Amino acid sequence: MDPLFWRERWENGQTGFHQAQVNIDLRALWPRVHCPPHAPVFVPLCGKSPDLAWLRAQGHKVIGIELSELAVASFFSEQQLQPVRECSGSLQCWSAGGYELYVGDFFDLGAAKLENVHALYDRAALIALPAPLRERYARHLSAILPAGCKMLLLTMDYPQEQMAGPPFAVAESEVHTLFDPDFSVRVLTTRDALLEEPRFQQRGLQQRYEQAYLLERT
Q: What is the pLDDT of residue 18?
């Protein structure tokens, strides 16, 4: 998927994927990640999610990466923070208040930026990517995450023929295909979520499940 697609979505206000409230699964399931207080947490394709502020409120330093400079600028503005901006190779790092958010391509992020990360939170990164990029995404995470890093992964599963992504359907079998054997994979929850967001029914979905996984980099 062309990075321009996501930048234009933010510029045109086509951000139905953005949740204005903290994700309920993050609140409920984060304790099961057992991430130590004050340990850094990585959030790929972070947008301007309020989940970032929730993680920071738990004491974690938050490291994120996002294609859209507009999204990152909006996040810091909403948090009433004045970030310091520095170039870091092909990426630009915006930092303030315990946040370190990189503007640029996720695949340009190297392991050195994440060497102290204890956990990763993925609500909308994997499901935002078409199948070829999902495979590349998983391989890149395997390359840049330190051993022992845990990952709270939230996915969506539905009959792909009923709706064109994003968000894309990712079945449990695909999660194992993508992440085994570099990660251990455990299902935490599965729930019928068709009625939770009417916009998906309006797009033609007749079935939708949300799943949460706990992964650990081996």
A: 56
